[in-house]
Amino acid sequence: MSRTPSPPPSLNPVPPSATHEAGTAWSLLLLADIAIQQGKPDGLPEVHRPIWAKVREAFQHYEAQRDEQARQALQAIPLGSPFLEWKVLLRGLLAYSAQDDAKAIDNWQRLDPRRLPAKLAAPLRWQIDPTFRQTLPRQLQQQYCQQAMQLLPLPEALTKLARALHQTSLTSAFRLAEELVALWKSHPARVERLANLFYWQILDHGEPKDLSKFTQIFGPPKHDPKFMRLQALIYERQGQIVLANTYWHSYEHWIATQPTLWPGQMGELARAILWERMGRNALQYLQNGDDDEFDFIAQPLGGKRPTRLPLQPDHEACFRTSMRLAPDWPKPAVALFEYYLQQQQTDRAFAMAEELLARDPHHLGALNAMARVRCDRGEWEVALELTQRALATAPLDPQQRRQTSEIYERYIRQASAQKRFDRARQLLGSLRQLQLLDKTVMHLALECVLEQKAGNSARVEAIRQQLSANPVQQIQSLYCLAVEAIEQKLQTKGKSAYENDLQRLLDEQGSVMTLCALLTAAQWYRDAQVTYRGQATYQTKLHKWMDALIKTQPTPETLRALGEVLLAQNQVFRLRKIVKAGKELFPNNPWFCFFEAELKCIQWKAGQAELSTVWEAYQRAARLAKAKTSEYADLLARIDARQKQLPEMFTEFFSFL
Amino acid sequence: MSQDPYTILGIDPQADDATIRQRYLQLVREFPPEHAPEKFAAIRAAYEQVQSLESRVSYRLFAQGKNDSVEQLIEDVLCQMPRTRPQLRLWMQTVAPKPSS
User: Fold this and answer.
1) How far is CA A349 from the centre of its chain?
2) pTM (2 d.p.)
3) Is residue B22 part of a domain?
4) Secondary structure element (H or E) that encloses residue A339, with its range
5) What pLDDT does A38 receive?
6) Which DSSP string corresponds to A191-245?
7) What secondary structure, in 3-state letters, does A536-590 show?
8) With bands split at pLDDT 50, 70 and 90, how would you rate the model's confidence at A651?
9) Cβ within 8 Å, pair A37-B82
10) If contacts are CB pairs under 8 Å, which of residues 32-61 in chain A contact chain B?
11) Chain-chain contact of B85 with A148 (C-beta, under 8 angstroms)
């Protein structure tokens, strides 16, 4: 097959820069090429002119189909001649015209790509040498194709068809297709490809009348004889889900009756895929309706869609039919599982998770949901096995590591409460391997209480020292130790000591830094869905402390620090207080407008605010920040990043306004 | 060049997962990304379309022939055309750049 062009040593021209002698040799080669191209030997040294004449003669014989005479003329060209490349080109050309592609390729791949013969051979080599064609950059492929189109007698109707399709003029394209079908009677594969081209063109640019025109010219398409798939795709594209599903349904029926085209497992999977698609459409219909029933512009501006009845068959029926047809294919089960979870139909979601895990034992969503429910039921080892399977599936996913850590934490507390210290220590070792640095304080407190219960005072002391190394950690550890003491059922004396320490801290109402540290620690337990005795009291005290700080020390720094903590915790109600106070007291501070925008964003995601208000709030924050760019560069970058996350269409719409 | 994954990979549409993977690995060795980046990308994309039964059925249901274009049809027709006898003058006009002085 094709090789990198490597001319024989005698022909290998040295670039002009090498030496004077080499430069002269290179010039001579170029002169030879120019002499052939111009049809005049004017610039050539006298000694080479007879060979030039022989090359011309060989070409004349070749053009007149006197191949033998052409070969004889070529024999007169010696090895050291500057015309040797032309001899190789012509030899390839003789083989090419004799339909001997292998020999033609063998000659042409020897040509020096810098010389004219290689350039002349390129479009013909492109035509016959698939390896050469495939390894070319796209731009060169197109260039050689264009040149080949001019050299070879391509049917005119085909070039006109290309133009018609570019102008999306299907009517004239159909007329040209008729001509080509008549021309290509002995090329059924070519006609089939042309038909296929028109089939997909109808999806993009067609009209209803094009279907009958298509059948008239090409006959019914083999894979969609009644255009049911095509019409389903068209209606889907138009957002007319009811009609789309009607056609998908018909197409699925048709596939079921075509065992030759869609045999056995393949046919059943195809039908399952179509039912799954219908299920997704039905779900979309239930949530959004048909596009023709609702002005698309109204939704982002806050319009409400009317509640609607489900499509028949509804999404559940579609997904279940799909599951029945292809029991090993997990996609419809995933769709149903996610739907039930979203609808908070927990029992059905878990039943579906069981079914899903039977099909796909590595499905993360199902594994995590099942791990949690097993944990809630006290089936610790099963929960552990499920979460470890999930972790093994996605060992680097931070979200997964967090979810796994929560199962470990709960199990450790339970084991410690039951005085199964060895098991708890074992689990703690696995928990540490997850390396969740932001939970270090919580995990140290967990261990501290565990060792205190186990009577390992040396380790307790060591952990306490570790916790007091940093002031923020020390404050957070007071909260964590109090919670862990309750959760692990530490004896009353030890538990009271921790609770008293925390109470004292809460009653003192110290700095904003202390409050933020405590709010963060409280949030760790809320995120992990850990509930404990005294939780509501601690929360109330923290909130009173916050209210007091807002009243007594309403500096921008205090309010901003609190705002950041509350935002990280999605605490809408409390954050609103910060925004209100911040905007009243510091109307030119962009941070409070930013927090307001974030609040609006949270509300929008919950369907409680209009996207336009979110956008406007970010814009307001950006305007204020731009007034002092040096001070608020980080905030501007944050606003920009948040705005980019808003739906693209909406962004474009408003920037246009 | 055809966009059909079976043509790109040079396999029968009835081929099974193992055969397809074997052919894919063979082609990737033949056209490594550092030497033939475009060809490699085409092989990779073709393989993704047909690597499993699900992807093959999905391709057949929703995408078979969808990316074909009239330009690709022209290319294939050109490549299948009988070899002709180009005239030197026309050939030069079409292909060769004007000689420099």
Assistant:
1) 27
2) 0.62
3) yes
4) helix A331-342
5) 85
6) HHHHHHHHHHHHHHH--THHHHHHHHHH-S-TT-TT-HHHHHHHHHHTT-HHHHH
7) HHHHHHHHHHHHHHHHHCCCHHHHHHHHHHHHHCCCHHHHHHHHHHHHHHCCCCH
8) very low
9) no
10) 33-34, 37-38, 59
11) no
In this structure, is residue B101 part of a structural domain? no
- Whether B57 sits inside 8 A of A162 (CB atoms) is no
Query: Could you tell me if A160 lies within 8 Å of chain B, comparing CB atoms?
Result: no
Give the integer Cα–Cα distance in Å for A194 and A173: 11
**CB–CB contact B78 A153 (8 Å):** no
**Structural domains counted in chain B:** 2
Q: Are residues B69 and B36 in the same domain?
A: no
**What is d(CA A125, CA A108) in angstroms, rounded to the nearest whole number?**
7
Question: Could you count the other beta carbons within 10 Å of the beta carbon of residue A350?
Answer: 19
CATH value at residue B31: 1.10.287.110
Say what the alpha-carbon torsion angle A115, A121, A123, A128 is, to the nearest 10 degrees.
Answer: -140
Q: Which of B70, B96, B99 sits opposite A165 (nearest CB)?
A: B70
Q: Within a domain: residue B72?
A: yes
| B45 and B1 co-located in one domain | yes
Torsions phi, psi for B57 (to 5 deg): -70, -40
Residue A135 to residue B54, Cβ atoms within 8 A: no
CA distance A146 to A168: 22
From the centroid of its chain, how far is CA A325? Answer: 29
Q: How far is B36 from chain A (nearest CA, A)?
A: 6
Amino acid present at A305: R
Contact A443, A425 (CB under 8 A): no
Longest dimension (CA), chain B: 62
Closest CB from B36, B74, B99 relative to A158: B74
Q: What is the largest CA-CA distance in chain A?
A: 116
Name the minimum distance, in Å, from the CA of B6 to any CA of chain A. 14
Residues in CB range of A312: below 8 A, 6 or more apart: none
Question: Does residue B75 share a domain with residue B30?
Answer: no
Percent of chain A with pLDDT over 90: 49
Same domain, residue pair B44 and B81: no
Same domain, B47 and B60: no
Q: Do A120 and B54 touch (CB under 8 A)?
A: no
ipTM of this complex: 0.87
Whether residue B58 is contained in a domain is answered as: yes
pLDDT score of A650 more than 70: no
Distance CA A480, CA B56 (A): 54
Q: Nearest 5 degrees, angle CA A500-CA A503-CA A504? A: 85
Q: What is the pLDDT of residues A173-219, one digit of tens each?
A: 999 999 999 999 889 989 999 999 999 999 988 888 999 999 999 99
Same domain, B46 and B58: no
Report CB contact under 8 Å: B95, A147: yes
Structural domain of residue B32, as residue ranges? 1-51
Altogether, the residues listed in chain A come to a count of: 657
List alpha helices for A98-185, DSSP H.
101-108, 116-128, 130-135, 138-151, 156-166, 170-183
b (16+ CB within 10 A) / e for A251-280: bbebbeeeeeebeeebbbbbbbbbbbbbbb
Residues B79 and B36 in one domain: no
Residue B58: its chain A contacts at CB < 8 A?
273
Shared-domain flag, residues B45 and B85 = no
The owner of tokens 């509350």 is A566
Tokens of A603: 């509300």
A218 Cβ contact list (under 8 Å, min separation 6): A177, A181, A191, A194, A195, A198
Question: Is residue B42 pLDDT above 80, yes or no?
Answer: yes
